[in-house]
Amino acid sequence: MSILNMLPPVKGLLQENADVGKRSWFGTGGPAEVLFVPADMDDLVVFLRNLPQDIAITPLGAMSNVLIRRSGIRGVAIMLGDWFKKIFVDENVLEVGAAVHCNELATVAMYHELGGLEFLIGLPGTVGGAIKMNAGSNGVGISNVMMECEAVTSSGLVKWVRVTDMDFGYRHSSVADDLIITRAWFRGIPNASYSITKRTKELLSKRTESQPTGVRTCGSTFKNPDSKKAWELIDAAGCRGLRIGGAAVSEKHCNFIINEDNATPEDIENLAQSVAQRVFDKTGIALEWEIILLGDK
Ligand SMILES: Cc1cc2nc3c(=O)[nH]c(=O)nc-3n(C[C@H](O)[C@H](O)[C@H](O)COP(=O)(O)OP(=O)(O)OC[C@H]3O[C@@H](n4cnc5c(N)ncnc54)[C@H](O)[C@@H]3O)c2cc1C
Fold first, then answer.
1. Which fold has domain 3-79?
2. Model-level pTM?
3. What is the CATH number of domain 212-294?
4. Minimal-distance CA residue to ligand 1 atom 2
5. What is the assigned CATH class of domain 85-208?
6. Is 220 designated active site?
7. Domain boundary assignment for the chain
8. 165-183 b/e with 16+ CB inside 10 Å = b?
9. Which is more confident, 22 or 1?
């Protein structure tokens, strides 16, 4: 029986068997049993308060850091829509909806002559996904500029979470897998427009020089192990250009796996596992996934 019949009525969108994998940055993967795009905060809260407790929920952002296995996402995947894409600026503080893209946040901060958020330029995820992942670049993570965030629990309780309560680390936070971040506040540092623009341009060109562009990928597959670069270990283990099915290790940045030719999610997962095995055999170092795997194997 369809779980749609068990779900509370909503103002937003409810879609059964939604093809989220194809819409992910990998361009491949399984569906969501149901996709819910809330019309606004009330819609999200009321839905969660009335959702039967045994139905799992999974927040999704831009899907630039997830590999969705063929089995798909059980229960309800929740993707925040336009209502959660607002940015308000009050002096040095930016109040930002969780569905805003990091790139846009960096651009708005630059426009308001607020520095410190330049590192978010070119980062393809949303603010919600970036907080969960503590995404960042060049040694700065989103936790370094965030003040606090608003989130909704799976039972529909709205709460405010301070940075100090989120146990942030390198590409890590203690945000529970079913907590939905809805809004966050960031502090910018007033700076001259030309300095912010210059730094932003430098970071963008560094990104385009070192990373493949215009390809289907979810960025770095593995976290950098202590004081080592994952790409260097992968390169030294002879994995640059390695292929399984339609998936390939990028020639340009070998911590990136690319969906080169109609790769299946298994091609990508198997290729990543093969890379990790080769690195382990050569160095004894066990690489840890940075990409989040969703769905049962
Ligand atoms: C080309 C490319 C370059 C990249 N470069 C970088 C980089 O420089 N630095 C870096 O750190 N990452 C990088 N990434 C990875 C990715 O962009 C980041 O991890 C990003 O923050 C993920 O955000 P998202 O919205 O796409 O999240 P998703 O991929 O949709 O989800 C990631 C995780 O966050 C959770 N999540 C999503 N939205 C919410 C929410 N609102 N509330 C709670 N949890 C949520 C999901 O459940 C999942 O666990 C790159 C990816 C690509 C494709």
1. 3.30.43
2. 0.97
3. 3.90.78.10
4. 219
5. alpha beta
6. yes
7. 3-79, 85-208, 212-294
8. ebebeebbbebeebbbbbb
9. 22
